[in-house]
Amino acid sequence: MAPIGVAILGSGIFVESQHKPACLQDSTILSLKAIYSRRKASVEAIIANETTPIDVYSDDSGEGMGIDDLLKREDIQFVIIALPILQQPLFIKKSLLAGKHVLSEKPVAKDLAAANELIRWKKTHAPEPIWSVAENFRYWKAFEYARQQVNGLGKVLAFRVEVMQYVAPGGKYFETAWRKVPEYQGGFCLDAGVHYTAGLRMLVGEDQFSSLSAFTALNQQHLVPIDTIMSTIKLKSGVCGTFAMSHGTPSAKAFDFLIVCEEGTVKIGDGSKVTVKKTDMPEESVAFGGEDGWNGVKAEVKAFAEAVAKGVGNDDQSPEKAVADLELIEKMIQSGEQGGKPFEVTGGLEPTSVIGDVIEKITS
Fold first, then answer.
1. Domains and CATH numbers, the chain
2. pTM (2 decimals)?
3. Which of 312, 290, 306, 318 shows the shortest CA–CA distance to 140?
């Protein structure tokens, strides 16, 4: 089988450091044909040292080299979309209408309303191409191993997520214009938080959440609107746990997930080390080193390429799972805005998103 042609829409930090290498990882599977960005210079900068020919498309590249021209290419089967959050839906729709399969970055949309609208639109206007949402935590080797261990230790009794870091002024991610002055809820808490909720859901069960309550804070004025979320979460089983996330803690750094089960505990430390302590047994730790084992981006891109080849999307990359990840963060933010008010967790999908194509036809 010939390699699958792929293009990347976006030229940001994550595209250069993760998506581009992922698309170049195996030339027998993938062929990176082109990269699009608003500015030609941005694309040229990230491919300057590449020996593989990669075509440049941009809004200032002249006639025949814009986004519409890229999407007309028959040798490109799918696109990876990694653009600012508010721009994503437009390019997702444009790409799907052009018949391209789409792997879009998270969050799935700026909020649940926009995400549900996008799912309804897709069902009606572009039902054939695959649309998946990238979530590297579900392909992260440490998280995959930890999930296997949790599944073998009986009922979950408690859990704790603790992610602490400092996004400093002048840092490469903070100085991204759309992140520096966010026009969407939660700022960095949304942008990064959807990955942490995905990791938690992966470990304790994707559909096990019942309700949550949270308080939020802004510790660093440059990280508006909030930089900290402290939440308690209840599962359908009655078990509860905590989710603590801050991007405004210069003196503290943590990236830990702890799951307490009937027959032992599983802890992911710093995203790379999994420690399992079975009842009455000594601890056992497994370290997952190297870039491939650490963040899962290459694995998720390869998985999507395989899905395109088969013509069927992956469950771990479904928009519905991405919506459920988003729901936890959005309701934490809303709970914080309302003084810790409890919110029910439903999965995030509106009823019309499930049968939206039928309702839209009836009411149009």
1. 4-136+297-318 (3.40.50.720), 138-293+325-344 (3.30.360.10)
2. 0.94
3. 290
